[in-house]
Amino acid sequence: MRIAMSIVVAVLLVSCGSGDDTTGPTTGTVTDTTVGSDAPEANGDATPDTAALDTMPATTTTTEAAAVAPSTVESTTVEPTTTGVTEPEELADLDSLATITILTPADGNGARPRLEWEPVSGAAGYVVTVSPPDDVAYWAWSGAEPMVWFGGTQDQPPDGAAGPSLFEPMELRVVAVDDADRIIAASRPLTISP
Amino acid sequence: MRGVAHWSASHHRDRARGHIVRLLLTLCLVGTVAASASTVRAGTDEPPRFADGSWKGTMVWVGSVALPSAAASGGSDGQFDATFAGGLPSGSFSFTGTGQGSSSSVTATLSITVHGSIEGTAEAPLLVGSSGSMSGTAYSSGIEVPIDVPLAGSLGSAPLTIVHADCDMVTGNFSAQIDTLAEQVGSMGGSLDISEAKWFAKRSGTDGATDADQLQVANQLVTDGMAIVASIELGTFDAAALQDLLHRSANFAASIEHNADCGIGDEGHFSSVVAGVVTDVLNAMLDRADSFTAAQFQSATVAGLAAGVLGSGSGESGAQLRTKLLDVFLVKLTQAIADGDQDAMFAIAVAAGALHDTELAAQALAEAEKV
């Protein structure tokens, strides 16, 4: 389903970017990830939260938008294929970024969990976002350390302290930035529960 | 704070008569609100308000005063007392604030003391002044110029506008109060321009000393946050300073005991001591969006989420900020595409994803992959 939705988005983008409704020539391009036969789960529903980047596709192709005919568009929005045109859904889908492995367990975290991930070589800092499913992020943090307690402290907060809390399952994402504040690595989302 | 104010004749003795002194005024006012303990349910889309209970607060003014001749000096102290019960405040307050400043030939400090009561409602509390004074000493070319300005009669009321509130912390501003003071100074032949006016309150604990220490920390955090806003208004975004402010604010929150049953907001709703200034950071950047990069807006978005002013629990005010930010990110993406700026595209993807604009995030990712 997510693949289908992403294809819809991709097609819409192609249409918008072309400046032409359906059949005219276009100067726009769609850069897509071609998913190998052993990798569909990486973009599918089966493992969206825990798949490591090393399961991500390794090849990339570029397709001229004009080559996507309307009839093809309609069919691909309905039936995703492992070799069809898809858009990256996460930063972690991009080959140009390194992988961040989240160390925080998925379950049993309590209301103020310790969020932790493998340090990234060359990283000067990290940005963490925590989002309820299908919603605006609930809380975020940025800092130099490869860990933070939920709420933004480096030390474990006392029980019953003020601040944000993990009151329901939420998706944890981490990106790493270099000393020029450029994003150099990203994690896949991990759903963490109290 | 309306009322009659009279400058004493002493300040006219200054040899620099007629010279206008620009005086940087920083007033740090610490207050306490005592209250009883019933609760009223409020969702995050409802106006922010004080929950019943005991509260302690701190206020920060930053601005400038122009006085006809002279400079001034004085001390500073403050207290703020009131009672909230059943959603209604009552009680009294008093505060003294002090500002200092200098020009090439003049230095000055000015103290303002006001006493009054807390009235209004939990959503819109009012400071109602009953008495006060402005005092200090001016030095110009080595000449001391005492200043003594009694604030006689009714001083009027000043709303404490609430910007963000949860069970543990409430933040806001009091610009209307400053306007009234400006009128008073204007009636004296001078002028008062308050660029920032913030207050913060925390639910008080059983240890008054701890409360006092926490308020001192809070005051510094708000003051530092206002400095960041001022820099942004000049076109400079200091990401490291903002990040440091948020880290210190998180530590501050961890020092406060959470009151889970006050009836403010939905589950997980939270605020921050710097919620007000982070809101100002975002608005200041939005007002001059061309001056800041996509990465800087991404950092500001993270700050907004960290401070609880932008996230899923931030209510209508957060939703409005989100919409404005996404409009900016869309423009930034267009520019990034034109420039082939992959770093900007990454930043936009992160921010748009956090703001749950999946279409914009997908577009940024798709464009980034092309570069």
Overview of the molecule:
The complex is a heterodimer of chains A (194) and B (371). With 194 residues, chain A is an alpha+beta fold. Chain A has 2 domains: 2-93, no CATH class; 98-192, Immunoglobulin-like (Sandwich). Chain A is 15% helix and 25% strand. In chain A, strands 3, 5, 6, 8, 9 and 10 form a 6-stranded mixed β-sheet that branches. The two termini of chain A are 27 Å apart. Chain B has 371 residues and is α+β, with helices and mostly antiparallel strands. Chain B folds into 2 domains: 4-205; 207-256 and 274-371, no CATH class. In chain B, 36% of the residues lie in helices and 32% in strands. Chain B contains 8 helices and 14 strands. Chain B has helices at residues 175-187, 208-233, 239-254, 275-287, 294-306, 315-339, 342-354, 358-370; strands at residues 4-5, 20-33, 55-68, 77-79, 83-85, 88-90, 92-102, 106-120, 125-140, 143-152, 157-159, 161-165, 169-173, 191-203. In chain B, helix 2 (208-233) runs antiparallel to helix 3, helix 4 runs antiparallel to helix 5 (294-306) and helix 6 (315-339) packs antiparallel against helix 7. Chain B is globular and about 70 Å long. The model of chain B is unreliable at 1-43 and 69-78 (pLDDT under 50).
